[in-house]
Write a structure and sequence with these properties.
alpha+beta; Deoxyribonuclease I, Chain A; 2 domains; six-stranded mixed beta sheet; 10 helices; 19% strand
């Protein structure tokens, strides 16, 4: 007896077979994907490249000397450079100890050497000759929230400078210094106005003078003649300080008493963008290079000696603090500012002048160390 096949059953079996053939395996949410396995040659190449990068790591810090002038923002980076180095030293030290790794040890040694070269060596003395005769010049940043009138007066009494540039002074400072020096020229804001400036409460312009030029004065035992601003037509706001002619015993000297704004991004009481800071420093340097008489430039420049601004200023000028000895950081308190190892205050001199007995006073009345040096004509060669 012949049995006939049901056509519908044939269709159902073909459908099931086709569905089975088209089934796609989708991993469940709880299923972990299988790791991608590299073949032996790929894994070997990956490990070699990683090792190569680790051995190149010790070279990386030294690229600073290649790129430190490529953009004005590097002026701001220069300020923070010691902090970055010390952070890298800490990481590489613990990695070298915990992993017992020679590669991390090489990074550590490189960073320590880089710190010495980039941060410490710019303080080394140039050992120039002492002047035949001299006057004593000093710069003192009273530090608005750290000062004590009696302490600053004690410094002046003890060191007895012939010429003093005072920065961030109060009216009390100005009155005291005018009583000690027969000649003076100053622009003093009231203490209340200075405190408002520090809090950014007096925004009235677009230049660094928008909150008023922080109080600055020059006090001298010699006669002073205030000269015109040499960059008034070049840079908005003009010179951040004074340009005066001082009738010293050895002849007239041009003195630039300066408080240059900080190269800090963003809004603040007394700062410029990094590019604005460099433009201002360039304008001042060009003005100094055009002077005929000997030049002394002193004050708070807010420019570290590893930065582009310092290299610009010393293009034609010499570092008077390094002329006769080692220089040291001047903005070393309070923490964490001591970690940036910053020489922000400077005494710079033209080629025809020399210094002796330069020192940085350790005081308690300011967040800046005052500087003092004997300045005078260099002896004949």
């Amino acid at each position: 007896m012949t049995h006939s096949q049901d056509p519908s059953s044939t269709i159902r079996s073909e459908t099931v077979s086709t569905a089975a053939d088209l089934r796609i395996d989708v991993p469940s949410a709880n299923e972990t994907p299988a790791p991608v396995e590299m073949d032996a040659s790929t894994e070997r190449a990956f490990r070699m490249s990683r090792r190569g990068l680790m051995w190149l790591a010790p070279i990386t810090p030294w690229l600073w000397f290649v790129f430190r002038s490529v953009h004005p923002v590097m002026e701001f980076v220069a300020i923070l450079l010691p902090v970055v180095i010390l952070f890298g030293v800490a990481i590489s030290f613990f990695a070298a100890v915990l992993r017992r790794s020679l590669r991390w040890l090489s990074v550590l040694i490189s960073l320590v050497l880089f710190f010495v070269v980039a941060v410490i060596l710019p303080w080394r003395p140039t050992n120039g000759p002492a002047p035949e005769s001299s006057f004593r010049a000093a710069t003192l940043n009273a530090g608005l929230y750290f000062f004590s009138d009696n302490d600053s007066g004690y410094f002046v009494n003890r060191r007895d400078p012939d010429l003093l540039v005072g920065i961030e002074l109060t009216e009390a400072h100005d009155a005291e210094f005018r009583g000690r020096f027969p000649n003076a020229h100053a622009d003093i804001l009231s203490l209340e106005r200075q405190q408002q400036n520090e809090q950014g409460l007096v925004p009235d312009g677009d230049t660094y003078r928008r909150n008023g030029l922080p109080s600055i004065g020059i006090y001298s035992k010699f006669e002073l003649q205030v000269l015109e601003d040499p960059i008034a037509d070049v840079f908005p706001g003009g010179l951040p300080g004074f340009r005066v002619e001082v009738a010293s015993d050895d002849g007239p000297v041009i003195v630039y008493a300066l408080h240059i704004p900080r190269p800090i991004p963003g809004e603040g009481p007394y700062q410029l963008t990094a590019s604005g800071h460099i433009e201002l420093v360039e304008a001042i340097t060009n003005a100094v290079e055009a002077e005929i008489l000997p030049v002394v430039m002193l004050g708070d420049f807010n420019t570290v000696d590893r930065g582009q601004g310092y290299r610009t200023l010393t293009r034609e000028m010499n570092d008077g603090m390094r002329h006769s000895g080692w220089a040291v950081p001047t903005a070393d308190r309070p923490l964490p500012w001591s970690l940036i190892f910053a020489r922000l205050d400077h005494i710079l001199i033209s080629d025809d002048l020399c210094t002796a007995n330069a020192l940085s006073e350790d005081t308690r009345f300011s967040d800046h160390r005052p500087l003092i040096a004997d300045v005078g004509p260099c002896p004949p060669q």
